[in-house]
Specification:
Layout lengths: L2 H25 L2 H4 L17 E5 L34 E2 L11 E2 L2 E2 L15 E3 L4 E3 L10 E5 L2 E5 L8 E3 L6 E3 L8 E2 L1 E5 L2 E6 L3 E2 L3 E4 L5 E4 L8 E4 L5 E4 L8 E2 L1 E5 L2 E6 L3 E2 L3 E4 L5 E4 L8 E4 L5 E4 L11 E5 L2 E6 L3 E2 L3 E6 L2 E5 L8 E4 L5 E4 L11 E5 L3 E6 L3 E2 L3 E4 L5 E4 L5 E6 L2 E4 L7 E4 L4 E4 L8 E5 L2 E5 L8 E5 L2 E5 L8 E3 L7 E3 L8 E5 L2 E5 L10 E4 L2 E5 L5 E4 L4 H7 L8 E6 L4 E6 L6 E7 L2 E2 L8 E4 L3 E5 L3 E10 L2 E5 L1 E3 L5 E3 L5 E3 L3 E3 L1 H10 L5 E4 L1
Parallel strand pairs: 1-12, 54-66, 57-64, 61-65
Antiparallel strand pairs: 1-4, 2-3, 5-6, 7-8, 9-10, 10-11, 12-13, 13-14, 15-16, 17-18, 18-19, 20-21, 21-22, 23-24, 25-26, 27-28, 28-29, 30-31, 32-33, 34-35, 35-36, 37-38, 38-39, 39-40, 41-42, 43-44, 45-46, 47-48, 49-50, 51-52, 52-53, 54-55, 55-56, 58-66, 59-60, 60-61, 60-62, 62-63
């Protein structure tokens, strides 16, 4: 066989082998193609050295149907760019294919490299459209990935190595035109001011957290560009990503943005409307927009708080603070103190006004106590003890009640001082001797302002009972007049505010009248004054008013308290009542022979007639029962075809009630009293039946004869 014939036969065999090999290569799985060179797995993006890319005005090579480098998925999709700000811009190819769509532009324009002569053994060839790659059978690779020493390369349907952004199998990759034969760029890819992270397996990261080679976390937006500055994740949480770091890692903890501090939690993102404790132990308040509160802020726990505006992190200031020359107190739990005492230290107190600043000078607290707060001290603490104020006047302030008024005050050194109603000190006792406010030692009767004292010639205060100008006074051991009730020698006496003993009628407190004898002793029992009889309680001395049962007689006090004996119309019933016992302090006795009804108050042996009335009892054959009974049930009315009001049970169906009314309850059917005319019940005038109904308690004895 000649050489020419062999050559032609070889060429025809190669022509048949190339399509077969190419079809096999395209159909291979990633594991088949990359059996000796598997791609790395996982979602961590390990950027290589940053490649600054820019948009190119050159057309992309014809598109490829290849999948990802590791998956080799077959796809007829074109390379469409993400539709979000920051995504690589798309550009059109010069030569359209049958299924061409918009594809992303190549980053950063770069002149197409001049085709360079390839080594004879290299499978790469340069063409006017770009690089081509021949497999071992001499066929150009199309719609597939291939890996060589320079990395992964992607070929379109024309067999041209793709340059720039490509989207095989709906995943974005970047084929770097600055690398040999447009090798795929993985890890960090920079396009202008945007940064992307591309994984060999899953392509460009999108809408997810990614951990970069620095170990920090970034957020890939829906366009794939890493978020920079403020951004919201798909879960609605706000984070801040470092715009100065190409990887734009999330800043966590306390951060400063445009001079304002914020707090970013690694799980929850931007903190808003909440307390935050910083690593130095201080507390800050994140406002509703996330920035730390500064200066005065109203809100948390419905209180005022102050955050230091002079420090970058604006920590909460607590304790005593000074703002614009005024003092405040901030409690770490309840906020600014208002309208209350503030303890500044041992025995040091200030008063926070309703607006917060400490009070200065004279002040009356809500409970009526008066205080003086030092205007010369920044803290304006309350002055305590004896103080000289208002042009040399002396005052005394007690830590419990403030300014001493109208009282003797014992000083720590043992001296005693008298404070007037206005609080000024007008007298002083030193070693039992009296001194006036000016230091002199007057004697006799001295008016201290709200107090009159008597000083002997030896400058001692008079004490005990003293007869002055024919009247008796009582002074305590400190010379202060004794007032009110005092007991001496087993008898009670009453002294006014000056210590003067009272006599005659008095009404201290405005409640009860008392009578004091000429010697001042309180009277008890029966007394006669100006021809009238009065009864004074044997224990308290208070004058009795109203009714009095005494010695089997009833007395009634007039408007002035004088007692007048009340008449007894049924003395025989009263005498008989004295032998009857009742479980209450009331007794009812009914005489059915003469139709008499009596009410007594007191106790057995000392019953006093309270009311005596005529009544109606049972008619012959329907007699009212005789004997001893006790009050039972009660009711407002009863009757069918008639009506009786205010009934009180004697026993069974026998009742005490009103006269007989018709069924309307208002017109009288039988109003007679003092005769035998009932069916066994006891009838009374309606007003009397009502009194029994309202006043006689259950269990009261009813004696009927």
């Amino acid at each position: 066989m000649n050489i020419t014939h062999l050559q032609k036969k070889r060429e025809s065999l190669l022509a048949l082998a190339v399509p077969i090999a190419l079809s096999i290569a395209i159909a291979l799985t990633p594991s088949q193609i990359l059996a000796d060179n598997n791609m790395p797995q996982g979602n961590t993006y390990a950027p290589s050295s940053s490649a600054n890319t820019s948009k190119s005005e050159e057309a992309l090579p014809p598109e490829t149907n290849a999948g990802t480098p590791s998956s080799q998925e077959s796809s007829a999709n074109s390379h469409k760019a993400p539709e979000h700000d920051g995504a690589p811009a798309s550009q059109e190819t010069e030569e359209a294919t049958d299924n061409q769509q918009d594809t992303p532009q190549n980053p950063a324009p770069a002149p197409a490299p001049e085709p360079t002569p390839e080594e004879p053994s290299s499978p790469w060839e340069a063409s006017e459209k770009g690089f081509r790659y021949k497999d071992e059978n001499g066929s150009y690779l199309k719609n597939t990935w291939v890996k060589d020493a320079d990395g992964w390369h992607l070929f379109n349907s024309e067999g041209i190595a793709v340059s720039g952004w490509a989207k095989p199998s709906d995943r974005w990759f970047y084929l770097d035109p600055t690398l040999p034969h447009n090798a795929a760029k993985f890890g960090q890819v920079t396009d202008g001011d945007k940064t992307y992270l591309i994984d060999e397996n899953s392509g460009m990261a999108c809408q997810e957290w990614v951990q970069n080679s620095e170990g920090t976390w970034s957020w890939a937006t829906d366009s794939g560009a890493l978020a920079s500055g403020w951004a919201t994740t798909k879960w609605g949480r706000v984070f801040y990503f470092d715009p100065h770091n190409p990887l734009h890692p999330a800043d966590l903890g306390m951060i400063m943005v445009n001079g304002y501090p914020y707090w970013i939690d690694e799980q929850l993102g931007l903190a808003t409307s909440q307390w935050i404790q910083l690593t130095d132990g201080s507390w800050v308040w994140a406002t509703d927009n996330g920035s730390f509160a500064s200066g005065w802020v109203w809100g948390p726990k419905n209180a005022w708080w102050y955050f230091d505006p002079t420090k970058a992190n604006h920590p909460l200031m607590t304790g005593e603070i000074s703002v614009d020359g005024r003092q405040y107190y901030i409690d770490g739990n309840t906020g600014m103190k208002r309208n209350s005492w503030v303890k500044l230290g041992e025995s040091r107190w200030a008063w926070a006004s309703d607006d917060g600043p400490f009070i200065s000078g004279w002040f009356t607290a809500p409970n009526g106590s008066t205080w003086y707060f030092n205007p010369d001290s920044p803290s304006h603490e309350a002055l305590l003890g004896e103080q000289v104020l208002n042009g040399g006047r002396h005052y005394y302030f007690d830590e419990s009640y403030g300014l001493a008024r109208k009282q003797w005050v014992l000083l720590p050194n043992g001296d005693k001082v008298w404070a007037t109603q206005e609080g000024t000190i007008t007298g002083r006792i030193i070693n039992n001797e009296f001194f006036a406010a000016d230091g002199s030692q007057p004697t006799g009767k001295i008016d201290l302002g709200g107090l009159t004292i008597y000083v002997s010639s030896d400058h001692k205060l008079l004490t005990g009972w003293q007869k002055i100008d024919g009247q008796y006074y009582l002074y305590g051991d400190d010379g202060q007049p004794v007032s009110g009730w005092v007991q001496a020698g087993g008898r009670w006496y009453y002294l006014d505010s000056q210590g003067l003993m009272q006599t005659g009628w008095i009404k201290p407190g405005g409640a009860y009248w008392y009578h004091l004898a000429a010697n001042g002793a309180m009277d008890t029992g029966w007394i006669k004054d100006d021809g009238k009889d009065y009864y004074l309680d044997p224990y308290t001395g208070a004058m009795k008013t109203g009714y009095l049962s005494w010695g089997g007689k009833l007395y009634a006090a007039g408007p002035d308290g004088a007692m007048v004996e009340q008449p007894c119309y049924y003395p025989d019933m009263l005498n008989y009542a004295q032998s009857i016992y009742s479980a209450t302090n009331w007794l009812i006795q009914i005489d059915t022979h003469q139709n008499r009804f009596a009410v007594y108050k007191g106790y057995r042996g000392n019953w006093t007639p309270w009311y005596e009335w005529y009544c109606t009892t049972g008619m012959p054959g329907m007699w009212t029962p005789h004997g001893q009974f006790t009050v039972g049930s009660k009711g407002l009315y009863f009757g069918s075809g008639y009506r009786c009001w205010y009934y009180t049970q004697i026993t069974g169906d026998y009742l005490i009630h009103s006269i007989l009314y018709n069924s309307d309850g208002y017109t009288v059917r039988d109003g007679r009293l003092g005769y035998h005319g009932s069916h066994g019940c006891v009838r009374l005038a309606t007003e009397n039946a009502k009194w029994i109904y309202n006043n006689i308690p259950y269990g009261t004895k009813i004696y009927i004869w």
